[in-house]
Hints:
By secondary structure, this protein is an alpha/beta fold. Among the domains are: about 1-65, no CATH class; about 265-405, Vaccinia Virus protein VP39 (Rossmann fold, 3-Layer(aba) Sandwich). It has 20 helices and 10 strands. It has helices at about 5-10, 25-35, 40-45, 60-65, 70, 80-85, 105-115, 135-140, 155-165, 170-175, 180-185, 195, 200-225, 230-255, 295, 300-305, 310-315, 325-345, 360, 365-375; strands at about 15-20, 50-55, 55, 125, 145-150, 260-265, 280-285, 350-355, 380-390, 400-405. A 7-stranded mixed beta sheet has the order 6-5-4-7-8-10-9, sandwiched between helices. Strands 1-2-3 form a 3-stranded antiparallel beta sheet. β4, α8 and β5 form a beta-alpha-beta unit. α7 packs across α8 (about 135-140) and α9 crosses α13 (about 200-225). The longest helix has 26 residues, at about 230-255.
Amino acid sequence: MKFHKTLVERLFNKNYQLIDGTDEIFELDLALWEYKVLSKKELIDRSAYFKIVDGIETMHYKICNLQNLEEVHKKSSFRTKNFFLNGKYSTGYATHGLFPYRGKFHPQLIRALLNILEIKQGQTVLDPMAGSSTLAVEANLLGIDAISIDISPFCELIGQVKTFALDLDIKTLEKIGANSNKLLEKLKKDIVPQYFINNKDDKKKRYYEIVLLAYLDTVGFSERSESSVEKLFSRVLERYIATIKYFQIARQKVGLKIGNSEILQGNILDLPIKDSSVDIIITSPPYSFAIDYLKNDKPQLEYLGANIDKLHQEMIGLQGRGVEDKLDIYFNKMNQALAEMKRVAKNESPIIIIIGTNDIQTKGVRLEKKIIELSRQHGLKFELNLKKPILGLQNTMKEESILFFTNQK
């Protein structure tokens, strides 16, 4: 009797093994795409979904296993620890685990997109609605430079921390973090202590921003757990330092070189970037009014002294009264956003937009269809809609669309 070969056996050379848990159709699709466009050396150095290539462990697989997440989360709850251990190849590696920002990119997916689009060192990638700067982190891990822009000053802080923490002196951070009680007293003010935002030594300021983000993370953790900030802060800061420390150990062992990032606060409707200056754009706009980021981040934004009323008027997806009015304003702003993306991207550059639709909130209006229509009006060539399922019984949004466009000047 001749036995049937599995799909993976039929797709890939028998000497190539996928990372455990790579079993969704969209993941297999992206893994096959990597397999087709990357050389053997490139697969080893930068692939997202392979663990073994012709008998050699890949860089991604090595780093994820060297990062010692067991030690990092030794004081975390069972649920949190289990989440990060289960996602060590997909979401929990490098500095992605610093601050649990809602609605962020799936890091392993972003890595794969950078690979299949064949982005090289020396090129620049842009996310003009960056959120927690997942694209910048992934680009930097591949030695690629990134520009990360978001309208929220809190997102700017998250991006600064996550990218700076990829390449720093861990001893300096540990020395600063050893005084957690004194730091907490400085941080428990109505306004951010000036030392944390106006330190003349810009490099040292970056270390204190890590502490500041840990504090703002603690504030949210305290509200969710009904435990005091005083009880939680040292534990959260310790986890931040451990995350960064074990990544530093891992990257130094494998000789990983980190790219550079420019993290900016700015508006997608008026990007502070020159015409035709970026090689690729990957971004995820707000899913209409599916997530109210201002409400989500209100304690952190207030602490940072942000003008929340101004942000409410400028942030895409928050204006309007009824569904039709909200969608009209949303699509008008997305139309302007598409014009800006076209302007700053080079000719023939790929533009990737990841978006989902909550049909209940939009009353059946599919956001991805309207984005494709608007993009075509701007001369962006639509190439592909790759569907990515969103798992979980509680989700009202069942899938995301990964929309591929080519900029045509």
